[in-house]
Amino acid sequence: MKELYVNAPAKINLALKVAGLRDDGYHEIKTIFQSISLADRIKLKKRSGGIVVKNSTVELPTDEENLAYQAAEIFFAENDIAGGVEVYIQKNIPIAAGLAGGSTDAAAVMRALYDLYELEYDCSELRTLLAQIGSDVPYCLEGGTVYAQGRGEKLEFLPFIGEKDILIVTPQFCIPTPEIYSLYDQMKIKNNFDFDKLLQNIKADEKINWDLDYKNDLEAPAKKICQDIKDIKDIIKKTAAEFYLMSGSGPTVFAVYKDRSRAEKVAARWPRKNDFIRVVKTIDRY
Predict the structure, then answer these.
(1) How is the chain split into domains, by residue range?
(2) Domain 165-281: which topology?
(3) Which one is catalytic: 11, 91, 164, 233?
(4) CATH fold label, 3-157
(5) pLDDT-derived band of residue 174, with 50, 70 and 90 as boundaries?
(6) Average pLDDT over residues 63-68
(7) Known catalytic residue: 136?
């Protein structure tokens, strides 16, 4: 095999609770990740040596700062292979948007390299390697509906919530995750939402009760930095959405609709012309 094409799906957070600041400087969190059909498209091609990463956008680095590059470095360090890889990333996921765009690229490249070089792998071992890159990178290896703890790297696979029609809206505003957590600490937010109750709702493989506390503790600090989040939610509030929430550290807001046609009508009439807007669906573990 000389070349390979793979998809790198985005994720949303159905809920996110910050449980405190750890001794290592990271925040302890509880979250529920959910994969969606929005995905980057990645091509990998064998080289005689070295790692080359190219992107469809100039906004992303192509050197060691690129998470996909880091994944390739780890792969070649872990395996005695005389060879290299050229990676081309067609970016479809907005950058720094709370959708794990860089993380999913890294996970997809790691898994694809094992396939490209026809090597066997164990997903649990790959997740351990990917944790070196970022907290949500291990999750992106297989996706699905997952309960994550710790920094986001401790995973428990949950029953798939089923195919839901989702509207994704991302303003043209990049939010650095560390800045959001820093502001969260400064605001001294006291959260009291019942994460465990909603977790049990999903674990029981029941129909999701969107009236439970599906909240995101990072939304308050994100709104302080990005007014667009509130503006987007105000628009969605006037539609027939079953549920809506900011994903990750923002600024993306997602909304759940009963069927795709309702979501598409909202997208077609969206008044903010500079926003990134897509109608997608939730997807199971891949």
Answers:
(1) 3-157, 165-281
(2) Alpha-Beta Plaits (3.30.70)
(3) 11
(4) Ribosomal Protein S5; domain 2 (3.30.230)
(5) confident
(6) 97
(7) yes
